[in-house]
Amino acid sequence: MTAQQSPRGDVISCVGAIITDPAGRLLLIKRGHEPGAGLWSLPGGRVEPGESDEQALIREVREETGLSVRAGRLIGAVQRAGFGESVLDIRDYAATTTGGTLAAGDDAADARWVDQAELSGLSLTDGLVDALTGWGVLG
Fold first, then answer.
1. pLDDT per residue over 75-90, tens digit each?
2. How far apart are CA 20 and CA 86, in angstroms?
3. Where would you tag: which of 1, 11, 47, 58 has the fewest CB atoms within 10 A of its CB?
4. Closest Cα partner for 126 from 80, 87, 93, 84?
5. Contact criterion met (CB below 8 Å) for 16 and 27
């Protein structure tokens, strides 16, 4: 899949995973690279040429967290600023862990399960809490 053109620049297709554990905690990664280096966000990333959203989601979660997942339904979509004039078109899906051991890898500087009370103490990517609240993921 190639990036599309928008008035602001290229539109880059991305996916994110909304994963909770049995205690209701949300899986977040600390971004290791731009855009958003040092900020906490959902695991995910760019959809590579020839990949479906499901394939990209499974690959990105495994690369960033060490966890294997099963992709679920689309929860919501947002657009965020990317590099330069590019726009990240991000589709966030529910996902369920099926195996693996949580460990930061690839583009993630850290990965952890976070409860709702801990979210306010983290530096999060722009709009994350608003999106998750609007989609009913956070109360």
1. 999 998 888 888 999 9
2. 30
3. 1
4. 80
5. no
